[in-house]
Amino acid sequence: MSTLSTQFKSGNQLSSLSIAIWRTSQAVVWLIGATIFFCLVFFPPTGVLLFWNILIPIAPALIVVAVGLWRNVCPLATTTLLPRHLGLSKGKKMSEVLQGKLGLVAAIALFVIVPLRHAVFNVNGQATAVLLFAAATIGVTMGFFYEWKSAWCSTLCPVHPVEKLYGSNVLCALPNAHCSQCMMCTIPCPDSTPNIQANSSQKTSYHRISGVLVIGGLPGFIWGWFHVPDHNSILAASAIIDVYKMPLAGLMTTLVLYWLLTKLVIRKYDKILTAIFAASAVSCYYWYRIPMLVGFGKYEGDGLLVNLSNNMPYWGIILTITSTTAFFFWWIVIRKPNGSSWVIRPVYAEKTL
Q1: Contact at 8 Å (CB) between 342 and 160?
Q2: For residue 235, what are the CA distances in angstroms to 124, 245, 329?
Q3: What's the number of CA atoms in the CB half-sphere (13 Å) around residue 339?
Q4: Fewer CB atoms inside 10 A, N or C side of the chain?
Q5: Is residue 107 in a domain?
Q6: Among 185, 188, 206, 186, CA closest to 197
């Protein structure tokens, strides 16, 4: 029996010290996540505050600047990758068609779950805990069958479409703290492909549809989401219509706009167009989210972290959100792509013939 090496470059070789540091970091962040989960179950108001008003508002900016850091320490990723780390996964390679289907499901799940925050998750910590537990259960179950991050992180995770949209021009590539060898489980690998975008993969119609849906729809979806107040219940049909009406209307508006622009823009400028929509989405998020956090939101009390409305002049808020918008457009659109991937690809595994 002969061996054919597919090792094309030295890749990412972590020292024992580096592995120890990353494992410690993963454990610490996992414990923080477990603490938030505990609070969601037993102290719901505190859990909601920690998860939706502290952790989630930080996430988009982190994804823009250093999505590889998040991919390395995400508590849900650490959990779903346990079968692979413990040698319990069958390590099956997922077909491109299935990857495309799951990626489209992830994008749709994003647009289905997020509006429910207004009527369920923002006001019910235990419901949020159930959501997280369900995601972890699905991810771990898939991890017993499929190879590395193809099981969850790079396919079915609803956050992954946002990672690919926002994380197209990261600060630098970090070591890969999960994959010890590249098994080519996902092609192109979102972690190791330089300046990857939401529409980088065109392998199947599912990949193409999910890419267009996320790029074109997310800016309007975010705008619409911030024009809906929180509800105390979703039992009434009117509440269900209300939480979805504005986000979906916004999604369709910018999706149509994006589709029209793709017909008018020269193909070589496609990446710039995608970057503009990505910057618009994350800028829109912070344009509304930052005022909400400090008591200047459209709906009093919704998404509040600490009320500074009596201590901070409104022009300070305008200056802050204008600055964040300028930063994101510079970082994503104007700043020259540096050719960095999210993490450094590890060595390719050897194939046995």
Answers
A1: no
A2: 14, 16, 40
A3: 0
A4: N
A5: yes
A6: 188
- HSE, side-chain direction, 13 A CA sphere, residue 228: 28
Q: Using the CB atoms, write b or e for 228-247: b if 16+ within 10 Å.
A: bebbeebeeeebeebbbebb
Distance, CA of 126 to CA of 48 (rounded, Å): 9
**Alpha-carbon dihedral angle through residues 105, 108, 114, 118, given to the nearest 10 degrees:** -120
Q: How many residues does the chain have?
A: 353
Q: For residue 115, count other CB atoms closer than 10 A to its CB.
A: 23
Alpha-carbon gap, residue 218 to 341, rounded angstroms: 23
Say how far apart CA 89 and CA 183 lie, in whole Å.
13
Nearest residue to 342 (alpha-carbon basis) of 104, 180, 163: 163
Radius of gyration of the chain (CA): 21
- Give domain status of residue 87, yes or no: yes
What is the Cα–Cα distance from 189 to 92, expressed in whole angstroms?
16
pTM of the complete model: 0.92
**pLDDT band for position 6 (cuts 50, 70, 90):** very low
| Residues spanned by the domain of 201 | 3-335
**Residues 287, 324: Cα–Cα separation, whole Å:** 8
- Mean pLDDT to the nearest integer, 238-253: 92
> How many structural domains comprise the chain?
1
Assess if residue 77 is contained within a domain: yes
In a domain, 351, yes or no: no
Check residue 7 and give its pLDDT.
37
120, 242 contact by CB (below 8 A): no
CB 129 within 8 A of CB 37: yes
In 3D space, the residue among 218, 235, 163 whose CA is nearest the CA of residue 196 turns out to be 163
